[in-house]
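Propose amino acids for all 335 sites.
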């Protein structure tokens, strides 16, 4: 039986986020999360076209990297890790699923049917598949057939307007292990408030069709308490948190204790160092820099430090800023 169905627990998941939830950031989050709270993490979405191409594979494989330290943290805190793939050709999904099964160490494969970005949906992929329900089912079936690990789907509620009942019942025909529903349409991008009553509709459809696919809700959740509230209120099997982690990297802890500026800046430096050590060629420092702001908030002088960080070009620049702060003595980091 798949781990999804084997567990009586509700699932609290960290969302897949491109250029964010790589092995480095997952290691940072896992390292400060309370065991037993967070129980599933997702890798960034990976193109099946890339994965099935001899040269493309080298370019995308960093998205599927699980570092040794991350693996140890996953094992010690019993957190599952899911690879996520996207594309439009069922045959390539099958080949990609086989590659992930044979060459990597993931606990599940998720199919992205939610990304609304123009250059992606132009290729009849991701959320655009809501327009092609038969193709969407073919993709799921092809992936299921090729994979020994469980197959789930992450999707939205519609293209321009919510069509939750129709779309979810279509997906349920092929029994994905889980449907994670981001309760916005393609058109809403992430610009409008999430509409959780759509999650309720999905649960009702699942129940009325008597299916055992799990439903995980996603959209605008910013605390662990809110995860538990949503699970109870909507009778769902779990909650996925995305951008909430930017507001609080320590989100996956039941007790929320005060984090001093020094603690935040220490974690920032750990992230910078790990990023630089892990991604020597694969990723530029500019990608990392955008996310430094998650550690420089809510304390005296934070905005000034943040502004300096946004100009940094490399870890040395960050070290220089941290060593020369007027208000906080961070030199101990470099002794
Ligand atoms: C920077 C960024 C990158 C994202 N990349 C992915 C991705 O690779 N795969 C995916 O399914 N969703 C992706 N998403 C969507 C999130 O997984 C999530 O569904 C969305 O942010 C809504 O949840 P939230 O309101 O908790 O942030 C991304 C979102 C952000 C902000």
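Proposal:
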């Amino acid at each position: 039986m798949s781990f999804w169905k084997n567990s009586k627990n509700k699932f609290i998941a960290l969302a897949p986020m491109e250029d964010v939830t790589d092995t480095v950031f997952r290691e940072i989050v896992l390292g400060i999360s309370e065991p037993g709270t967070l129980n599933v993490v997702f890798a960034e979405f990976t193109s099946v076209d890339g994965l099935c191409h001899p040269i493309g594979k080298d370019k995308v494989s960093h998205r599927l990297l699980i570092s040794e330290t991350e693996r140890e943290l996953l094992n010690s805190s019993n957190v599952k890790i899911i690879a996520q793939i996207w594309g439009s050709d069922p045959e390539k999904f099958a080949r990609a699923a086989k590659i992930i099964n044979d060459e990597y160490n993931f606990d599940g494969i998720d199919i992205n049917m939610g990304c609304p970005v123009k250059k992606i949906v132009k290729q009849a992929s991701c959320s655009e598949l809501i327009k092609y329900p038969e193709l969407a089912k073919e993709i799921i079936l092809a992936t299921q057939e090729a994979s020994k690990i469980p197959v789930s789907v992450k999707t939205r509620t519609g293209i321009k307007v919510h069509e939750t009942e129709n779309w979810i019942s279509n997906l349920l025909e092929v029994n994905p292990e889980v449907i994670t529903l981001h309760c916005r349409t393609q058109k809403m991008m992430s610009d409008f408030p999430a509409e959780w009553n759509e999650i309720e509709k999905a649960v009702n459809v699942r129940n009325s069709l008597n299916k055992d696919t799990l439903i995980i809700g996603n959209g605008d959740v910013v605390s662990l308490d809110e995860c538990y509230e949503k699970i109870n209120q909507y009778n769902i099997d779990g909650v996925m948190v995305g951008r909430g982690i930017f507001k609080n990297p320590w989100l996956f802890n039941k007790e929320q204790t005060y984090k001093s500026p020094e603690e935040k800046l220490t974690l920032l430096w750990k992230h910078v160092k790990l990023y630089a050590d892990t991604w020597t060629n694969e990723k530029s420092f500019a990608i990392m820099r955008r996310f430094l702001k998650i550690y420089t908030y809510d304390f005296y002088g934070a905005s000034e430090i943040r502004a300096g960080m946004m100009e940094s070009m490399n870890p040395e620049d960050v070290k220089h800023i941290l060593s020369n702060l007027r208000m906080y003595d961070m030199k101990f980091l470099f002794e």
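The beta strands are 11-14, 40-47, 80-86, 108-113, 151-155, 178-182, 214-218, 238-241. The chain has a mean pLDDT of 97.
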